[in-house]
Amino acid sequence: MINQRRLSRRVLLGGGIGLAGLASNLLALQLVPKGAQASSAITKISAIADIPRTAKTSNKALAVPASFATLPFINPVEPLSIGFDPSELLVTSEQGTVSKLASGQTLREFTLTVTPKTILPAAGQQFKALAVNGRVPGPTLRATQGDHIRINFTNNSNIALGMNFSGIRSNANDALLKFVDPNASIVYDFDAEFFGLYLYQGFKLPLAENLIKGLYGMLIIDPPTPRPKATELFMMLNGFVFSPITQPLPSSNQLYAINTVAYHYIRNPITGVTANQLVRVYLANVTEFELLNSFHLHGTVFNIYRSGTSLKPEETDSTVMLGPAQRAILEFTFKLPGQYMFHTYQGECAEKGCMGMFNVQ
Amino acid sequence: MTNQSRLSRRMILGGCIGLAGLASNLGALSTSLQSVHASSLSSQSDTMSGMSGMSMSSKAIGDTPSMVGLPFQKGDVAASANGFDPLKMLTDFDPGKASRLSNGQTFRDYSLIATNKNLLLGPQIQLPGVVYNGRLPGPFIRATQGDRIRISFANQSNVTHSINFAGLQPSNPAGKPQDVTLEPVPKGGQAVYEFNANHFGVYTYQAFTSPMADTTFRGLFGMLIVDPPTPRPKALELAMVMSGSPLEIKPNVAPVNNIYAINAVAFQFFKHPINIKVNQPVRIYLANATEFDRINSLHLHGNLFNVYRSGTSLTPNEFTDTVILCHGQTAILEFMYKLPGQYMFHAHQAIFSDEGWTSTFNVTA
Known about the structure:
The structure holds two protein chains of two kinds. Chain A is mainly beta.
């Protein structure tokens, strides 16, 4: 009976196409100059449909191969239809409402509200999620070591759940025992004790079917002396199962993504990065039904700071493996302008949406 | 059985973390561990006799509302059913019979006896096991760097096998060029393995035979801890082996685990949380003996720990809350709770945690 659980994994994939072929296509659409790119942060390129097709995009070398259309989930998702834009999520973090405690300690207050929300990880693929502040992943919260953090948490979903702040040395988030009923609120209070890259996740057993609903986000605690100035990007590796979760539990996901929407950063490559400019990716893996996931970058290598708790990298590589709930900070530069893919190195996950692209000027 | 099972499954890379990383944050917890107990560095005999004050909540959490719907959560596995107490096993380190050689070297003599034994992995879940010294996992053998180790192995089980001590180089008898740990020992047979504990670390030992996976998940697996010459700071030391088992084995079908645990019994330390104290340094010796799944992990709530991969360094590799181990890998985790509360620790592969690999620390002032 249950032995069949993971056997179907191999069968799920049809004929894949090479990643290299994919790399050479949609990028044509990035050749259109954007006026806003002068700003220091990342400039977002509009969705595919909005970009005027120039002569260059019909260049034969850059033509979309016919096989490309067979990739699942490649069709664009209109950001407005899901209420959040992954290009926005990529560069947005919250500093909270800042005040001073009597002790002189900086207090940062955040509000996290869980609501049911139907999202579109791919065109036509509705997923009934539980969203934090209307988005999946939830907001990237940011504080500095030594701050005090207060999270005003409201559960407007229809199930009782708690929020677990991974790695935070506190008993305020004792999610196992302090479940928050529907339409109830709780305050999580804790110190930002050690700098690092942390995770918050909605918590309810059975974990397998509840961790995948979209209740997750990152919490960054910056070191007292900030890391060197860089273009900072926030990425969560996630996956979705659209059919109901029943026994036997799924052996894989039906769709994989970076920040929820399959292929978003292929259709909307990351621009505003120039050669020799330091890029820092805050990366977390919240993919369930996979033992692990990974991030692989073309054309350069990155320094890996696992859990973000160290200022010295553990490793320099072009691939980092993360199990569920693991995090890492990646730092890199591109030496030359060009188009550089990033994707999970698990090919079956990459081909179901977990890919993106840098367009380096 | 099913030794062809793995052919169709994909290779994945285990965690490969360089040893070079050393940083301000990494030292933070270990520094505080040391400062709290600077005056009480344990003697070797202290560490090896197991720590006092260890206890487990007698009241079972049992059917908390949050547990409804999980398999194996109802009822208990009595210690008498398996013949070993999971709580005592956490701190049960085997120092062997120690003596001194004429050259001054400490000599430790251990005995491993393999037998067939039925074990309960959960209420009503019986595994036809093959185990060392009547327990699953096998004894947590403990020595100090520089010691001479001798293991007398008697195979009373129906599985012909030898024992391989990962990372430790056995001494071959004169004229034996082949690795003695690869010579099969049939039922009724005996073997002696001797080696020097050359470098401190957390090692594993396991049956070497075919089909390999089948004998590992049935219990022929244990941990061998070699302490550094200067002992690690005093702490509550807990030994944990992550494992899993299929409920069914079918010919020509890749086995899939359906029940998971640390130290054999699913949900044991969730139903009966492990009691520890605020500011008590805790050190977990962790090994992964899970077959049929490429990796397993330990994720701790409400805290961060220092990770010493393979236990072969005194400098932590990482300061985190989640560690992944592939089969055969080991790590030492060090942490301390600053506030009372109940804190879960579990595999962060949700399927594993839902099927038994979920535990709790009950931290009191």
